[in-house]
Amino acid sequence: MSLFGLGSRNQKTFRPKKSAPSGSKGAQLQKHIDATLGSGNLREAVKLPPGEDFNEWLAVNKFCTASNCPTMSAGPKYEYRWADGVTIKKPIEVSAPKYVEYLMDWIESQLDDETIFPQKLGAPFPPNFKKVVKTIFKRLFRVYAHIYHSHFQKIVSLKEEAHLNTCFKHFVLFTWEFRLIDKAELAPLQDLVDSIIQF
């Protein structure tokens, strides 16, 4: 068992996805978003349409929500569960936004822990340092996998795919260079990863 209880638990946090309900709340507002984003006038695209509810407008513009992403997944074959080995020892099913929230909080706690990430020059890194770093990158990869599988068309409609692809390419090249993610974890985006590392 590792310091974070991550050893054999990986198989429990990485599972085939069960069927999830789908639905489209705010379809008319979504049409407005799609129509105005293509116009090139972003100021118009973000304005509240006349007669629309403010809260509904905010909700429809947040496209990864607990209602439309009830499980953290990467396509129909992969589901990710959350466990940090400390406060949540047994992997639990959570929505994608909740997974990302847990992940960012967990990463912050790792970075703030001076026994893992020493702040003083010359202070030694712990023996399990690479294992912790690998877990951070593995979990960050899962966020990319979710975005590409569940939200890429939305990213394209926002004309932001070049930014996403550049960030992901840097991420893949860095993790590949230092072997920070096990090959099995890359399966949800294997073709995309292969196209990046075989350039």
What's the quick description here?
The protein has 199 residues and is mostly helical. The protein has helices at 10-13, 27-37, 42-46, 54-60, 96-112, 129-157, 161-177, 190-197; strands at 14-15, 72-73, 79-80. The longest helix is centred in the last third of the chain and has 29 residues, at 129-157.
Question: Could you explain how this protein is built, in words?
Answer:
This protein is mainly α. The protein contains 8 helices and 3 strands, in the order αβαααββαααα. The chain has helices spanning 10-13, 27-37, 42-46, 54-60, 96-112, 129-157, 161-177, 190-197, and strands spanning 14-15, 72-73, 79-80. It has a 3-stranded antiparallel beta sheet with strand order 1-3-2. A hairpin with a 5-residue loop joins β2 and β3. α5 packs antiparallel against α6 (129-157). The longest helix has 29 residues, at 129-157. It is globular, with a radius of gyration of 19 Å. The protein starts with 9 loop residues before the first helix and ends with a helix.
Keywords, please?
three-stranded antiparallel beta sheet; mainly alpha; disordered N terminus; 199 residues; 49% helix; 8 helices
Average of pLDDT: 82
Quick one: biggest sheet?
3 strands, antiparallel
**Tally of extended strands?**
3
Structural class: mainly alpha
Strand content: under 5%
What is the succession of H and E elements? HEHHHEEHHHH
Distance between the termini: 38 Å
Q: Helix proportion of residues, in percent?
A: 40-55%
Rough outline:
globular
State the low-pLDDT regions, or none: 1-10, 16-26
- How many helices in DSSP terms? 8
Give the neighbour order of strands across the main sheet: 1-3-2
Question: From the alpha-carbon coordinates, what is the Rg to the nearest angstrom?
Answer: 19 Å
Protein name: MOB kinase activator-like 1A isoform X2
Organism: Arachis duranensis (Wild peanut)
Pfam family, one: Mob1_phocein
